[in-house]
Amino acid sequence: MRINAGNLKKGDFIHYQNEIWQVQKAEFYSPGKGSALMKTKLWNVKSGKNIDVTFKSVEEVEVVDVESRLMTFLYKDNENLYFMDEKTFNQYPVLLSSVSGLEKYLKEGDKLYVYLYDERPLSVRAPLSVRLKVVEAEEAVKADTVSGAKKPVKLETGAVIMAPLFIKVGDVVIVNPETGEYTGREGK
Amino acid sequence: MKIVTKAENLENHKKYIFILQLIDDFLQKKDYQKIDLPVLSPSLIPESYLEVFETEFKFLDKKEKLYLTPSPELFLKRLLAYKIGNCYYLGKSFRNSDPPSSLHSFEFTMLEFYKVNADYMNIADEVLEMLRYINKKVKSKKLKVKSQNSGLRHLSHQGFRSQEGYGGQVKVKSDLGLKINLDKWEKISVAEAFEKYTGISEKELFNHQLFLEKAKKKGYQVEKFSYEDVWSQIYVQEIEPHLGKNGYPTLIYDYPKEFAALAKLNSDGQTAQRFEFYINGVELGDCYTELSDWKEQKDRFIKEYLERKQNKKINHPIDKGFIQALKYGFPESAGIAIGVERLAAVFLNLNSINELKVINIE
Hints:
The complex is a heterodimer.
Chain A: E1 2-4, E2 13-16, E3 19-29, E4 37-44, E5 50-56, E6 60-63, E7 67-76, E8 80-84, E9 91-95, E10 111-117, E11 120-124, E12 130-137, E13 150-155, E14 160-164, E15 172-176, E16 181-185
Antiparallel strand pairs in A: 1-6, 2-3, 2-6, 3-4, 4-5, 7-8, 7-10, 8-9, 10-11, 12-13, 12-15, 13-14, 15-16
Chain B: E1 3-5, H1 10-29, E2 33-34, E3 40-41, E4 53-59, E5 62-68, H2 73-81, E6 87-94, E7 107-116, H3 120-140, E8 144-146, H4 148-158, E9 169-171, E10 186-189, H5 190-198, H6 202-206, H7 208-217, H8 227-239, E11 250-256, E12 271-279, E13 282-289, H9 294-310, H10 320-329, E14 333-339, H11 340-347, E15 359-361
Parallel strand pairs in B: 2-6, 10-11
Antiparallel strand pairs in B: 1-15, 3-5, 4-5, 6-7, 7-14, 8-9, 11-12, 12-13, 13-14
Helix pairs in contact in B: 1-3, 1-11, 2-10, 5-8, 7-8, 9-10
């Protein structure tokens, strides 16, 4: 499928110079000289190489039709995240470098969509939010409202995020795994 | 979109406000008159590459369209025609259609200043002096830096209980200000930059057909695209990343006449007296020797107006009074527009203008 480069978004896969790349970053840019551009950072699914490519926003690019299949997260090592297709019991390694930090918010047994192209795992679709238990959090201290508005808390996966002062150990917080931002607390 | 409160950016915001003050101090010491201006106008300068915000004034059954100004240029130049002399505006400007990014917001703070009896290179001297002034003051200011981030780093490496000073404020040695040398500009003409960074010769650069052929060979899509579109793409892809990275701020000057906008042409007839300046790959300002020939200006306005129409942009009235002002007798002058949030982010070593804001619309 061909789309205008201006519609590219993070996570899309495209054909560019006869190879498959994932869009890691896409920023619209109007330099005020000539029409608008789309500045992208592309990640090569084969070599893992990153390149910066500027497209005209109305230039057509070929989007790769990838399959997304629901799989179970098993474990990770220094290079890969391992997922299992529950129907076939096949295991698929996904390069850590392709998930840009998402691994910090994953728990064993989580169900996620893995992107496949010709049965080859390319990357993982980041969920909009994850729910994780807080395992370490400092007691709220009376600080000035500005510096005290947020505090670091440690989650069950080991990730550390900034959360409001009222968050306590044992709370389940809702986090955007793409940005690491606290977005809410699960009601009790 | 939503309103996002980012009180945690207050310390950065304070430094940004300090930089705004430094700009006022510098320009006023140099006898530039600060001018406060409307941001809503019934007519605008037609610019084909940007979109504007449209709104409406309503009174009983009367309605009149108004537009948020994408730059204070139309007002300041009127005043220049009335011989008010060197002047500046430091305030909000608005540009529609571009989604917010680390370097852009549809509502932003712009510094625009004009110097009479001057050309673009005189402005370059003035800007460099201003950068030195801001740098010196920013570096010497005693600044409190919040420990929130260092606390976070501490936590992630060593666990919770061992950290000290968490949540409070600590005084640290300032690492603010520019690391580059501000003694001089790295000056490079657009033609030199194309030759050096893209391998496109001067001859190819100024000939549309040769330029597009060369671009195609380099792998760019050229079918259905104009010279300006492809030029801009190559400029951003291959030249911009090098600018302001050789130990000095870079001044890139003499753009092809297609990008003259409101700038005076050079005697070569193919370039305009326009420069942009960059620090660390980021474009911070855009300067012209102002075009004072009203006939030429009127022709360019019509061309831009028609392009806007063709590209289905908001059809705002052309500011005819601006042409009248030029007719009336516009002084030889040059002016520059600087994105102040970008400038502050560069001086404070921040990656995004959003880190300066305590309230942001996202």
